[in-house]
Amino acid sequence: MLKGRHIIESTDLSLEELESLFQLAERIVEAPQRFSDRGRGKILATLFYEPSTRTRFSFEAAMLRLGGQVIGFSEPGSSSAAKGESIGDTIRTVGCYADAAVMRHPKEGAPRLASKFSSIPVINAGDGGHQHPTQTLTDLLTIRRLKGDISNKTIGLCGDLMFGRTVHSLVNALAQYDNLHFVFISPPELTIPPYILEELGSNTYEQTNDLEAVMGKLDILYMTRIQRERFFNEEEYLRLKGYYILDAEKMELAKEDMIVMHPLPRVDEIAPEVDRDPRAVYFQQAKFGMYIRMALIMELLGLGGE
Amino acid sequence: MLKGRHIIESTDLSLEELESLFQLAERIVEAPQRFSDRGRGKILATLFYEPSTRTRFSFEAAMLRLGGQVIGFSEPGSSSAAKGESIGDTIRTVGCYADAAVMRHPKEGAPRLASKFSSIPVINAGDGGHQHPTQTLTDLLTIRRLKGDISNKTIGLCGDLMFGRTVHSLVNALAQYDNLHFVFISPPELTIPPYILEELGSNTYEQTNDLEAVMGKLDILYMTRIQRERFFNEEEYLRLKGYYILDAEKMELAKEDMIVMHPLPRVDEIAPEVDRDPRAVYFQQAKFGMYIRMALIMELLGLGGE
Amino acid sequence: MLKGRHIIESTDLSLEELESLFQLAERIVEAPQRFSDRGRGKILATLFYEPSTRTRFSFEAAMLRLGGQVIGFSEPGSSSAAKGESIGDTIRTVGCYADAAVMRHPKEGAPRLASKFSSIPVINAGDGGHQHPTQTLTDLLTIRRLKGDISNKTIGLCGDLMFGRTVHSLVNALAQYDNLHFVFISPPELTIPPYILEELGSNTYEQTNDLEAVMGKLDILYMTRIQRERFFNEEEYLRLKGYYILDAEKMELAKEDMIVMHPLPRVDEIAPEVDRDPRAVYFQQAKFGMYIRMALIMELLGLGGE
After folding, report:
1. Rounded to a whole number, what is the distance in Å from the CA of B90 to chain A's nearest CA?
2. Binding site annotation covers C6?
3. For residue range B112-125, what is the model confidence (pLDDT) as tens digits?
4. What family does the entry list (chains A, B, C) (predicted)?
5. C102 to B48, B277, C6, C56: CA distances (angstroms)
6. Is 0.90 exceeded by the ipTM?
7. Which of A269, C18, C107, C122 has the fewest CB atoms within 10 Å around its CB?
8. What does the pLDDT look like over B62-75, one tens digit per residue?
9. Which of B51, B58, B65 lies nearest to residue C77, judging by beta carbons?
């Protein structure tokens, strides 16, 4: 039972809680209209201190599809923060108006800080390069739905594994499952940090800079973009961003039932021709993102699983 | 039946489809509350890559008055486009969350491009100086409601006829009707382009730079503003913008049942004193704009005419 | 009966109208869910020509909790005003789409001007340093609910009493009640203007720059922040802003049933340690702000008290 909880990190949920959340999400996936009145009379506040249209849309659509309503801002400029208000005061005031709050913030730790003052559930929708737990929930639900199960897979993660928040959260969450083999694929300058590797539990891993060489053994290929905003140096960014581009030729090396995931937005790292391959599931993944958020909002507001 | 179609240009609808849409719109005008639940459970995305409060409000009010819901952005700054995402990826993602999308974009062709990738209906709400089909639908519905019929009229169009997107779309759409006489009234620097004149079919036209001289013969006077953003040169803009100002004195020359239309916003081209004249229908026109959008959304989403 | 009225200044309501509004608000406070369908089918437009997240959220949540819907903008950049439209034209157009409008504007008098052209009720949500009547209604409802009654109180107002719009409106409204004693607490540079003092009627007042000295006699302490945007000189601002900081030590001097109010956002003028004191009611006050706005919207739209 998650009623009244905050969701700040992807590890805030136990395996049992995850399981229960996924079961609810799957019931929503199968008949979303059955849940179209569960949120009636409830308000979700979307507090975006940095813009992220995709994430905001996903949360807002989730709330609206539950029959609830939304208030919010999508730019720091419109917020009271410009008047020097603390994040604690902001969330306490928002708690007077709304039943739950989603927060995106450029500073690490801001949603955690807000949750300490909040009378309503706070969901972290990304804080700097740190955490974005509902992306992780989205990824896990996608694997579960499309591969039947999360355990016993070979999972490739490709791109910027050093700064990529999405990858770190996902690997941490996957590490709770059994018998996974991770294949970390990145340029040497952007390898996954050692502290992530230390948390893999009984799961195994390998590291490589050669995507083609490992393509054939993957059940799942998780692609990420190389984000300009993580670099101090434009030249460095330009050199690395084209390093791993997934195209139709590389897809020929992959298993027939492999799936290609991506947290989106995608820039150049997946060639448009791959979109037509049925193994490319990144747009389905976005839709699962809305469904898992519907489930999460229902659980946090205690809107009833049945 | 328009279900699932995209509306990118004002000529995307045949005369028969227009007729059916207008009939639905007129039923909405007469009893809007009868339609207040048709959109229940549906979401419209308003994607405004340049601000246009009026157009956005009109679409959002239309959807809300159907009982539907809205997600959206009103400024390019809040969009994922800032992260380098293609318009195709944006619309595919939006299609995961929403049931239809309205797009306003500074670049010509952007809504057309989006529609090619979209799983949901896309409505063009203005692309640069190019097309704005729901404005045209608004204008046609206004004429139909207030003049009984679209054929057999003398229609004056006044102002910037060279760059004025609204006028071009309207003239193209009107050209499908019979027995119209167009009077194009503009300074010599801003006359209507020849390719528009070539498409008038069996209808007739004249061109003049003298508003007063033609005032008495008009059934409809369609005024437009001279838009600063279409000029490279501030001096040129200032010289031309005051060229044709409609005032009470000029209105005395007009027929008693002439109507004055304007797409709004109006700047100086209609003196405020004209607002009190019952022939000034530009605010009624704005209201018809909401009703035609209600009808259009219903048709595109297949929400049932009856 | 307030149906169709505009609310531009806090003195726009008579004592009888206020009384009736508060009675409705109190019925809402006691059972908000009873009113969750009153606004069904209605649309509120929130026109924020300068950002004010808190005020906007309060109005939007009020309308949504009545079952109504909202359209709006939160930044001047998104508005048609950027195209040179007059405020009269804007409100006439908004009146085509919405049933009532809330306006926040940096220029004094803008909401009044808008109301002169408007076919729908206009509520002033702050115009420059001038008026913010729903803040005043919030403050009055808070006093009434938490102190039982508005008359027969000693009310301290502390901070920037010269430029503080909130204080001026509140004092004007309170002056209609009986047997109040005002204690104006400010640095000499920021004393309350004489024209406010002239309107106190039969009520009494004193002025001081010493908060501690008067603390013990207050029934209500209304704190305000010293706003950077009211100063031309950064140095002057920094010197004065720390002048009166309410902390736990000063709270020890106060009556046991005194209440501390604040319009929020708070910066430094109330130490965070005070938040834990049950006499600190500023977050409850924010919640009353939503309820009084629900009552006001119901009255202006004629949505029925019973």
Report:
1. 8
2. no
3. 999 999 999 999 99
4. Belongs to the aspartate/ornithine carbamoyltransferase superfamily. ATCase family.
5. 23, 28, 10, 9
6. yes
7. C107
8. 999 999 999 999 98
9. B51
